[in-house]
Amino acid sequence: MKKNILFTFMAMAAAMTMLACEQEPVTDPDSGHDGTEQSGTDDPGTTPEPEQGTLLVGTFNIRYYNTSDGVNAWESRRDAVMKFINSSAADILVLQEVCQVQAKYITENLDDRYGYIEYDRNTGNSILDDEDSEGVFLLWDKDRLSVEDKGYFWLADPSDRFPEYNKDDNTYSSWHSALPRLALWIKAEDNESPGQKICFIGTHYDHISTQAKTGSSNLVVRKLREMTGENDLKNAGTAVFAAGDLNTESGATELAALRNAMYDARKESPKTSASDTFNNFGVSGGQSVIDHIFFGGNLEPEQYDVITNPYGAPGQYISDHYPVLFRCAYKQ
Question: Using an 8 Å Cβ cutoff, are 74 and 311 in contact?
């Protein structure tokens, strides 16, 4: 009897996983964005040139492996995606919606300077372990950063184990997420600035549950406080970042905890791109700003860019999201 129940549960989970890899993330139509932007960059669609002494961090939803995407299918975009990743010169970059076939291609073609961790949101195991996997992939420049610790946690309460499945409404955890979600993190020392610590959390919020988005924001802030040992993240001695596809526009109440505890790179940077981050492959409607980078600690914002360059993708879109890069410097 127990074996039959276990088999049924595993079959149900597998079916939901396959469904998840055929679902397109949606935005929250009720989330408000005040539309305020800073002055634009001279050429916001291209990767900013790295500068000595600055940090460049980013987030990029690469679009899950969907064979129905036509000219925008992964096989058509994968070289463009890798061209961006390897030429971005990002010190830290988090990727979302990475399925097994994509993770294999990325790891096979990733520049040697990058280290990485990746986890499947359906199991907590490596994305590379299961053909039905899909998760978050976090990479960093090994020459620039010495990673002292790394890992992941579930976007759920509790956050230390796989979210419990709610059979009544087909959701997960007490937050009723439509899908299991997780966040990846690293603690590192900047080799160019000995003694300077960096804490980075990269994630992908649920696309439906308002409760899950709010809970995730509170959890990310709490985790960063635990990682740094400091309550005031805006003025922490450690450089702190929270980045990812948060499936929510910046003015929404679901992101209030992040806005209150940290700074929004898009709003604080003196040079800021005003482009939407979700482009919907150019299909009219649905474009929005749902990919975010928040920061705190002893950092001065310099430039925030939404990278609209297609890098040679046949459909002229590197993904249904644009990559986002944020350049900052340590306070003097």
Answer: no
* CB neighbours of residue 6 within 10 Å: 10
Which is nearest to 128 in space by CA: 108, 110, 142, 150?
108
Pairing relationship of beta strands 324-330 and 271-272 according to DSSP bridges: unpaired
pLDDT digits (tens, 9 = 90+) for 118-135: 999 999 999 999 999 999
Please write the tens of the pLDDT for every residue from 108-119: 999 999 999 999
- For the domain spanning 55-330, the CATH number is 3.60.10.10
CB 247 within 8 A of CB 269: no
Phi then psi for residue 55, to 5 deg, are -110, 140
CA distances from 319 to 46, 60, 78, 205 (A): 15, 9, 9, 18
Q: What share of the chain is helix, strand, coil (3-state, %, to 5)?
A: 25, 30, 45
- The size of the chain, in residues, is 332
Parallel, antiparallel or unpaired: strands 263-264 and 182-190: unpaired
Q: By three-state DSSP, how is residue 233 classified? A: helix
Single-letter amino acid code for the residue at 199: C
Stretches in the chain below the pLDDT threshold 50:
1-42
Query: What are the structural domain ranges in the chain?
Result: 55-330
What gap in Å lies between CA 62 and CA 105, rounded to an integer? 12
**Angle in degrees, 0-180, between the axes of helices 74-87 and 100-109, rounded to the nearest 10:** 40
